[in-house]
Amino acid sequence: MDLGKRRFSILGKLILTFLIVISPMYVIGTRINEWGAQLVRNEISKSLQSQIQFYRTSLENEIDRMGRIQRQYVNDEDLVSLSVTPESLTEYQKLVTVKRFQQRLVLLKESSIYIAKASVYIPPINKIISSEELAGTLPRERLDALKRDATSLHKGLFYLDDNRLYMREYYPSNQLIDGRDPVFVLELELSIPAMQQYLTQISNYELGGAAIVKDDWDLVNTQNNEAYAIISKTVRESMTTWRDQPSQATPVENHIVTVGKQRLLTVAAYSSSLDLSVLAFVPEKAVMGPLEHYQIYLWLISFIALIVIVLFSYYVYRIIHRPLSRLVRAFRKVESGDLQVELTYKSSDEFNYLYEQFNNMVAHLKKLIFEIYEQKIRAQQSELKQLQSQINPHFLYNSFYLLYRMTKAHDFDNSTRFTKFLGDYFQYMTRNGSEEVPLERELSHVRAFAEIQTIRYMNRITFTMEPLPDACKMIIVPRLILQPIVENAYHHGFDLDHTDRHLRVYATHSELEDGMSLVAIHVEDNGQGMTEEELRTYKAKMLDEDAAEEITGMLNVHRRLRLRFGEKAGVHLASREGGGLIVSVCIPVAYSDNTMMNHD
What we know:
- The structure is a single chain.
- Helix content is 54%, strand content 20%.
- It has helices spanning 2-72, 77-83, 91-110, 140-150, 174-177, 192-202, 225-242, 284-335, 350-390, 393-408, 412-429, 439-456, 483-492, 532-543, 553-565; strands at 115-122, 127-130, 136-137, 158-160, 164-171, 184-190, 209-213, 218-222, 252-259, 262-271, 276-283, 436-438, 461-465, 476-478, 501-511, 516-525, 570-575, 581-592, 595-598.
- The protein has 600 residues and is α+β, with helices and mostly antiparallel strands.
- The protein folds into four domains: 2-44 and 296-328, no CATH class; 57-193, 2-Layer Sandwich (Beta-Lactamase), CATH 3.30.450; 195-286, Beta-Lactamase (2-Layer Sandwich); 464-598, Heat Shock Protein 90.
- A hairpin with a 3-residue loop joins strand 4 and strand 5 (164-171).
């Protein structure tokens, strides 16, 4: 009984602690939610206002640009010739002039996506020229209709009953006052589909819409006709007030219109230069509706959080807290230097794995404590050997003396090649940075070294290197693991009486178990080779990794590879059939999806 109360008391403390921690965040979250909702409402309203002003300005600029281009055609020489002095032109000249001006009308039409057709009416020759028709007859009733339209307050835009929208330029305009015919009329028919697409960009909500509104006509893009009828009426009433404002003012009005159960956020911007308004309306629910659900979500999350807190508190105490505390105590013992710790766990959950890995870690630490000293010693020996190889004075002296003899003999071809290979060789030997390089780079260095030796021995020792398989090129290996092997072949592999001396370097790879492959780089010579006794002696030295005597370059490479890649790596020697020696540098790598990767 007391034990049960005691356990409940601890669990209650955990629950109370979580509640105390989460309560301020809950209060702050509620306030932030309310503040954010209001902020979103204001920002959406500002965004809609900015958007509608942008589209209003874009429409003004585009119509103004089309008007300016249209007015430039007033002074066109061909148009003046056809309308003012047509009697001075022959019929052929008229035809040529008409065709030339029609081409300009085509260019005018293509200057804007909002122009569907460009035309000119020329009463003196009773012709209509358009971007789609070379020349047609101008009916008198059509001319009279043009003159009547000119007397209306259109501000550059004419909307006719046939659902067409025009921009016209009359020349000269003073003749219309006297009732005389104009010399010509330039007309641009605007593309209604393009204007509809323009409105679609403003508002594409399902129950929303956009429109261009004038007193006597409008262009609408909406499926919510009932809402638009109410909104457009309000906008037309407001336009009467907006016309009386100073020309520099840019009236923008936004308000919420309720249509049935719909609440629509409406924004309208008036254009004094065009005497029209651009309006857009969007359902308030579409842009702000999700904010209304946040409060419900908040209460739901709070209830779920309370349940989670109770369950999590109990879970922490029963499942995690006790085994984790035990694991922490064991880590502290290891931290203090006690490596005799071993944990046992009866359950088969994740802590069983953690305990086993902890025990493996302690055992591995014991092993590493002993191996790290040997590895440091081997690394120091390797570094000394590399430094000795890098600062080999005899190789340097012999190379420069040979270069001197070639230049003195004017053997510029060989001296040029020799200098290139010698530069590559010393660049690789003296480079700073990582001590591990791709196998392809290591073989390139070996090639440079072999080319130098080929020139030094005046081709008495030939050399071939077979291409490295693509899968092996990017294997990362320690630097200078191949040069000591090749250098040993040149210095000790051939005697003075040997003829047809040849050195060959090639790579192979074979699959091992557990998804591993063994990459081997073979250095093969046809020299004097080794006796069976010498081979046994050398192999015994490679197996004796604890030998403290000074080791050769080949033994140094062997021990470096075994320390880096494990027991499957190293240098292997074998007699070559027909005489000579094969030295193989073996590196185990992981093999997956036809791609080889280093295995640590």
